[in-house]
Amino acid sequence: MTQADDTQAALSYTSYLALDEVLGAQRPRSDEHDELLFIVIHQVYELWFKQILHEAEFLQVNLEAGNTAHAIRTLRRILTVLKVVVAQIDVLETMTPSQFASFRARLDASSGFQSAQFRELEAVLGRRDERVFAHYPEGGEQRARIAAAMARPSVFDSFLKYLANSGYAVDCERDVTRPVAPSAELQAVLLKVYQDDGGPSVVAECLVDLDEGMQEWRYRHVKMVERTIGDKTGTGGSSGATYLRATLFQPMFPDLWAVRSKL
Fold first, then answer.
1. Hey, which of 42, 117, 140, 190 would disulfide with 259, CB 3.0 to 4.6 Å?
2. In 10 A of CB 98, how many CB atoms?
3. For 63, how many CA atoms within 13 A lie in the half-sphere containing its CB?
C-alpha cells in the first residue's frame, strides 16, 4: 500500500469534516440551557456567510466571463442558502426574552455587529460605508478584508461588465469605491435588457431576488431583536433594534428596482 492509499484509508467522516474542532467550538460561559442554542445558531450563520462569500466570488468570475448559465446557477445557490439563513431565525425565536436574559450579561462586549464576514458580504454586494470600521481595530485582518472588498468591483460592477460583454451600451468605468447610485441612463439599458427577455434578463431577476433576500434577512433580524430585547441597547454597546431598523429597505441594486415602474 502506498503512502497515499494509507492516508486515504485513515480518512474518516469525523476527520474529513474536522468534527473534533467543530463540535468543540461551542464554549458556553454560563450553565444556562439556552446559551448553547445561541452559540450554535450564530456559528452556523458564520459558516453560511463563508459559503455565500465563496459563491459570490465564483459569481463575479462567471459574470465577467459572460457565462450566463453558471452565473444563474450560482445565484440560485446563494438564494437558497439565504433562505436557510433566514429560516434559522425561526429556531432562534423559540428562545424567550427571559431565556436570553439569563445569559446575556455573559456576552460582555461581543455583538452581532462584529460579524466581519457579514460586513464583507455587504461590501461584496456593493455597500460602501466606512462607519463599519468602528468595530474593527486598525491593522487587523478582519478590517483589512472588509476594506479590500470595498476597494474592488462589487457584484453589481461585475453585472455591468456582463451586460457590456453581452452587447449592451453600459458604462463600466465608475469609481468602485463609491456606492452604487441610481442612474437614468443605466435604467434605460436595463429596460432594453428586460424587453429582449434573454439570459441577461434572467440574471437581472436573480439579482433582484438576491437583493430582496438580503432585505428579508434584515427585516427578520430586526423583528427578532425587537421581540427579544425591545429597544434596549444591544450587546457591545450597539444601538440594537434602532440601528437595525435604519438599515431596512435600502436596496443594494437600486436601478434594478427603479426600472420596474417602466416595464
1. 190
2. 8
3. 27
| Predicted local distance difference test score (pLDDT) of residue 10 | 73
Output the nine-digit C-alpha cell for 164. 457590456
Angle among Cα 174, 206, 250 to the nearest 5 degrees reads 60
State the Cα–Cα distance between residues 60 and 157, nearest whole angstrom.
9
What is the number of other CB atoms lying within 10 angstroms of the CB of residue 167? 9
Residue 100: predicted pLDDT: 86
How many CB atoms are located within 10 Å of the residue 113 CB? 19
Amino acid, single-letter form, for residue 33: H
Q: Return averaged pLDDT per consecutive 10 residues of the chain, 263 residues in all.
A: 56 94 95 93 96 98 98 98 94 89 72 80 92 87 95 97 96 90 94 97 98 91 80 51 63 94 89
Helix (H, G, I), strand (E, B) or coil at 157: helix
Q: Measured between alpha carbons, how far is residue 112 from residues 46, 184, 190 in Å?
A: 10, 36, 36
pTM: 0.88
Nearest of 63, 112, 55 to residue 81 by alpha carbon: 55
Indicate left, alpha or beta for 189 from its phi (over 0: left) and psi (-120 to 50: alpha).
alpha
Look up residue 39 and give its amino acid.
I
Tell me how far apart the alpha carbons of residues 63 and 232 are, in angstroms, rounded to a whole number: 43
- Which pLDDT value is given to residue 166? 97
Q: Which of 190, 243, 206 is nearest to 73 (CA)?
A: 206
Q: Which three cell numbers stand for residue 253?
A: 441594486
Distance of alpha carbon 54 from alpha carbon 155, whole angstroms: 13
Residue 162 · residue 204 · CB < 8 Å: no
Query: Looking at residue 182, what is its pLDDT?
Result: 92
Per the CB < 8 A criterion, the answer to whether 120 and 146 are in contact is yes
pLDDT, residue 257, reads 96
